[in-house]
């Protein structure tokens, strides 16, 4: 099958699966779905094929490389160059830079640069996605601030949101990733796929939400963002973001320790009982999805296994698995898989998002917990759609 045929098949599958979970199909506005898909395909081509797009990616990657270098100076001062000696490399070189990136985000947030960018891009997006400005702002702010920190900006209006709007807000947060963690991804995946995924996931989220959770934003109560740093001094804010960044790094490290150990234990147990490892069995479950995305038959099982690993653990565990087999995969398969992995769509994110919202508004946190599985379901469809568009463009 050609890449176009695989894309068409993937689009049909994603659409059917989204419609199966939709409770109000009459409210779906096909025009917005089509125009979002067209824009997304054009953006994918821009970032993955055009000279200007590749130049942008190269510049973006160079910027993060510089930032990681600055972050490394702080890490080396505290840990005495252990990372350069290969000691605790992943924690020191991949996770610790999150602290510095988080601090930069805090500064840009405090001096009103990020809020301005969020509002401008959010306003433009609201013109093409058929959703409200609040939902569009949330898509951009989730990308910059992260899936849990993002909701702090909405703390004063969470209680006024309808269930449908809460689903949109939470699904957007789960389907994107935080800029503070992008540098870590770039140490494990090709930068162009990371950058492409950031943009594609945003538009794929709008497409899937238009199918799985349609509603007219004009019928929703008009809500406005609050100011996140009222009454805080610069250094109060800076300390808050630095600690938040370190907290994220520690949480990711803890999750990795736990999930990698659990997967190793499950692999051993399943091998004894079934003669196949846990990841191999998961690979068979995701094999059809890998094939639909155009992954060659001889690679589909490995790719499906990594896709499943990301779902049941997190993207870091899956990316580490990719590094082990990247030489065995074709460039196209590696690109498709890389884009699929760049999102927070996994089981642990349900708890993270629900917990973050519950800390701000207990009722809405409980609402999000109730549709947690649907949240993960929709976000996984987002990843599949982004990967399918990547496969189409890569040919």
UniProtKB/TrEMBL annotation:
* Membrane topology qualifier: Multi-pass membrane protein
Q: Which residues form the Concentrative nucleoside transporter C-terminal domain?
A: 193-391
> Which keywords describe this protein according to UniProt?
Cell membrane, Membrane, Transmembrane, Transmembrane helix
Give the residues annotated as coiled coil. Answer: none
Q: Cellular component terms, GO, for this chain's entry?
A: plasma membrane
* Superkingdom to which the source organism belongs: Bacteria
User: Pfam families, per this entry?
Assistant: Gate, Nucleos_tra2_C, Nucleos_tra2_N
Q: Where in the cell is it found?
A: Cell membrane
**In Gene Ontology terms, what is one molecular function of this protein?**
cytidine transmembrane transporter activity
Q: Which InterPro entries match?
A: C_nuclsd_transpt (IPR008276), CNT_C_dom (IPR011657), CNT_N_dom (IPR002668), Gate_dom (IPR011642)
Residue intervals of the Concentrative nucleoside transporter N-terminal domain: 10-82
User: Which intervals hold domain Nucleoside transporter/FeoB GTPase Gate?
Assistant: 91-191
Transmembrane annotation, as ranges: 6-23, 30-48, 87-111, 167-187, 193-212, 241-266, 272-293, 334-355, 375-394
- Give the protein family: Belongs to the concentrative nucleoside transporter (CNT) (TC 2.A.41) family.
- PANTHER family recorded for this chain? NUCLEOSIDE PERMEASE NUPC, SODIUM/NUCLEOSIDE COTRANSPORTER
| The name this protein goes by in its record | Nucleoside permease
What organism is the protein native to?
Answer: Chania multitudinisentens RB-25
Please name the taxonomic classification of the source.
Bacteria, Pseudomonadati, Pseudomonadota, Gammaproteobacteria, Enterobacterales
């Amino acid at each position: 099958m050609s890449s176009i045929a695989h894309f068409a098949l993937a689009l049909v599958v994603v659409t059917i699966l989204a419609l199966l979970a939709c409770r109000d199909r009459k409210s779906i506005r096909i025009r917005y779905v089509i125009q979002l898909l067209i824009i997304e395909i054009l953006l994918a081509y821009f970032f993955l094929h055009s000279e200007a797009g590749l130049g942008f990616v190269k510049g973006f990657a160079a910027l993060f490389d510089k930032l990681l270098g600055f972050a490394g100076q702080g890490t080396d001062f505290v840990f005495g160059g252990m990372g350069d000696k290969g000691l605790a490399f992943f924690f020191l070189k991949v996770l610790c830079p999150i602290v510095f990136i988080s601090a930069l985000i805090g500064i840009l947030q405090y001096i009103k640069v990020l809020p301005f960018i969020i509002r401008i891009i959010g306003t433009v997006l609201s013109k093409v996605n058929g959703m409200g400005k609040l939902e569009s702002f949330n898509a951009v702010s989730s990308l910059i601030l992260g899936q849990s920190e993002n909701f702090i900006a909405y703390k004063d209006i969470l209680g006024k949101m309808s269930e449908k709007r809460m689903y949109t807000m939470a699904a957007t947060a789960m389907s994107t990733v935080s800029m503070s963690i992008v540098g870590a991804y770039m140490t494990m995946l090709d930068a162009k796929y990371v950058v492409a995924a950031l943009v594609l996931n945003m538009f794929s989220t709008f497409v899937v939400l238009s199918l799985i959770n349609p509603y007219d934003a004009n019928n929703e109560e008009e809500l406005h963002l609050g100011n996140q740093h009222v009454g805080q001094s610069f250094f109060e804010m800076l300390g808050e973001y630095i600690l938040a960044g370190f907290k994220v790094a520690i949480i990711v490290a803890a999750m990795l320790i736990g999930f990698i150990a659990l997967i190793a234990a499950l692999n051993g147990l399943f091998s004894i009982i079934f003669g196949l490892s846990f990841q191999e069995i998961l690979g068979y479950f995701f094999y059809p999805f890998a094939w639909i995305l155009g992954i060659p038959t001889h690679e589909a099982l490995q790719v499906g296994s990594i896709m499943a690993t990301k779902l049941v653990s997190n993207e870091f565990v899956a990316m580490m698995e990719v590094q082990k087999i990247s030489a065995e995969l074709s460039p196209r398969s590696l690109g498709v898989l890389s884009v699929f992995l760049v999102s927070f769509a996994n089981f642990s994110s349900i708890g993270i998002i629900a917990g973050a919202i519950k800390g701000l508004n207990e009722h809405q946190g409980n609402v999000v917990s109730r549709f947690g599985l649907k949240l993960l379901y929709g976000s996984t469809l987002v990843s599949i759609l982004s990967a399918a568009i990547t496969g189409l463009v890569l040919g």
